[in-house]
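Hi,

Apologies if this is the wrong queue. I'm a grad student, and the batch job for ABC-type glutathione transport system ATPase component from Streptomyces clavifer produced an output file that my downstream script rejects. I'm not sure whether the problem is my script or the file. Here is the sequence I used:
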Amino acid sequence: MTLLSQHTAPEQTRTVATAGPSAPPVLAVRDVRISDRVTEREIVRGVSFELTPGKAVGIVGESGSGKTLTCRAALGILPPHFEVTGGSVEIDGTDIATLTPPQWAALRGSTISAVFQDPASYLNPSIRVGAQIAEVVRVKKGLKRREARHRAVELLRAVRLSDPELVYGQYTYELSGGMLQRVLIAAAIAADPRALIADEATTALDVTVQAEILDLLAELRERSGLALVVVSHDLAVVAHLCDEVLVMRQGEVVEHGPTRAVLYDPQHEYTRLLIAEHDQYGLEKFLTPKEAS
Ligand SMILES: Nc1ncnc2c1ncn2[C@@H]1O[C@H](COP(=O)(O)OP(=O)(O)OP(=O)(O)O)[C@@H](O)[C@H]1O
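Support response: The file is valid. Your script probably expects a header line. Output copied below for reference.
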């Protein structure tokens, strides 16, 4: 394997060339700062990245470094006592701070959507899972009940559930963790969003199911140009999916650049530490031969 350090000029904090004017970012996070109003502590201290169609950006870093809060800020759903105290988030060129709640409701799901860990807590246990997806389609796409049902079954098939008709009529307790995560992805893509935030979306799953879900996300990206933000404590997941990676520590981005450059030629001590921790899991097996050469 050739080390990327042989090809990459060292920089302390890398920045990545943004896409040309032909591809405006679906999501632009610019120097976002997030504070806890109660403790008056600044938790996220200046995160920036741009997500153009079909691109995948990974966010890695230790627990509590602010990955999830950054994603929640991008979705306009910060927990109650947190607020964005600096910078901006733009979706399709619109600063989300200027959006009214109905405008937000229209954007969420249809332009940007998300899948978090623990799917069971995002699905209603007393409603059949298919009906929950059909409801998203009905509300967001304006389809009639029968068409929405048909579309929901199609979505369950698209996330590679082997018997979508059967799954449509099942309740959460009847499904495995991997199946639930697929259902959640189906719900998240039901309104054809252009960007999907996957926050530790495969963490709770066993390795085989995790690999299947990652392949599914990669396929959605390839097929429909879905842009991805992938949050994971697992560098291998990010190596598998992302073009670009941000390494966060204590609310700050310590390194940002093309995934293979960051993983093969880390500039920051903390990134090196993260990579050393992952070495035992064989990070290189997740890089394609092209990337690893
Ligand atoms: N709902 C909340 N209430 C109180 N504190 C919170 C809440 N959400 C996040 N925090 C705090 O904000 C900080 C950043 O949390 P965040 O969830 O963004 O980290 P993370 O990098 O996603 O961590 P993890 O990998 O463990 O999910 C942490 O110190 C956390 O304790």
